[in-house]
């Protein structure tokens, strides 16, 4: 089980280097001056960090702007494929998006957050922007709730204590007791339901995928506009399709 707590004695220079990288990423580029202002550090300190990151080829420079280098593509792809089951999930995510025409994604829990690992859009999918690698509050997504329902309760409480229960919409469930009651229902029926809790007007269904040891690998979810995701489609057809897909992935993982 991972921990979401901060280290007791973090290394400040390493922290600063990562803060610089995160700011460059968040702002799609940054200057020495903007980084010094944002981090409230001397320009000479920022300059030394930038020169080190340039030397290590983690950033590139264009005029006075600094950007992330393409080295992160290599890191990202390795993270997407580091577990045996991930590539098998990727294939099924594509198939499910083609079959349903909706948006399908695979999410994992990492450090108490939901992280998008794979995403595919079907022929009439809603074009929202959960980019690959994006981290969001895990309790606000159908896939995230499916994962939480299968984690140890102590760890789930640790996640909630560390991050809180932010509301992304007026429909986000932010009551801890209500969420634990919902987790029981998720375990009983095998999948989770999200009705506008992450994005208004968007409904979703999610179910977990387990590895060969029975541990939660992540969760697959299907999402679409509320005017389509309702009735028999939302209550029977898509849940059955989703559960069948997860079962296929698990069988492939076990027998590969």
From TrEMBL:
Superkingdom in the source lineage: Archaea
SUPFAM superfamilies: GAF domain-like, Winged helix' DNA-binding domain
Alphabetical GO biological process terms: regulation of DNA-templated transcription
Signal peptide: none
Pfam families referenced in this protein's UniProt entry, alphabetically: HTH_IclR, IclR_C
Annotated ranges, domain IclR-ED: 71-255
Matches recorded under PROSITE patterns: HTH_ICLR, ICLR_ED
Protein name: IclR family transcriptional regulator
Transmembrane segments: none
GO molecular function: DNA binding
InterPro entries: GAF-like_dom_sf, HTH_MetabolicPath_Reg, Tscrpt_reg_IclR_C, Tscrpt_reg_IclR_N, WH-like_DNA-bd_sf, WH_DNA-bd_sf
Span of domain HTH iclR-type: 11-70
Keywords: DNA-binding, Transcription, Transcription regulation
């Amino acid at each position: 089980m991972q921990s979401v707590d901060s280290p007791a004695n973090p290394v400040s220079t390493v922290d600063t280097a990562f803060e610089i990288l995160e700011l460059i990423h968040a702002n799609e580029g940054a200057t020495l001056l903007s980084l010094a202002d944002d981090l409230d550090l001397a320009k000479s300190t920022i300059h030394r960090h930038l020169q080190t990151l340039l030397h290590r080829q983690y950033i590139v420079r264009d005029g006075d702007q600094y950007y992330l280098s393409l080295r992160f593509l290599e890191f990202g792809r390795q993270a997407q494929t580091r577990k045996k089951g991930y590539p098998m999930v990727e294939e099924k995510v594509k198939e499910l998006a083609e079959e349903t025409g909706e948006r399908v994604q695979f999410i994992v829990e990492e450090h108490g957050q939901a992280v998008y690992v794979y995403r595919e859009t079907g022929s009439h999918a809603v074009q929202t922007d959960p980019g690959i690698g994006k981290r969001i509050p895990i309790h606000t997504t159908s896939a995230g709730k499916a994962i939480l329902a299968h984690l140890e309760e102590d760890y789930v409480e640790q996640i909630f204590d560390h991050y809180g229960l932010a509301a992304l919409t007026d429909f986000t469930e932010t009551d801890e007791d209500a969420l634990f009651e919902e987790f029981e229902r998720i375990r009983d029926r095998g999948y989770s339901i999200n009705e506008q809790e992450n994005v208004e007007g968007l409904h979703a269904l999610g179910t977990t995928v387990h590895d060969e040891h029975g541990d939660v690998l992540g969760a697959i979810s299907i999402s679409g506009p509320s005017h389509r995701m309702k009735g028999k489609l939302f209550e029977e057809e898509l849940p059955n399709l989703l559960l069948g897909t997860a079962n296929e992935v698990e069988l492939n993982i076990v027998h590969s």
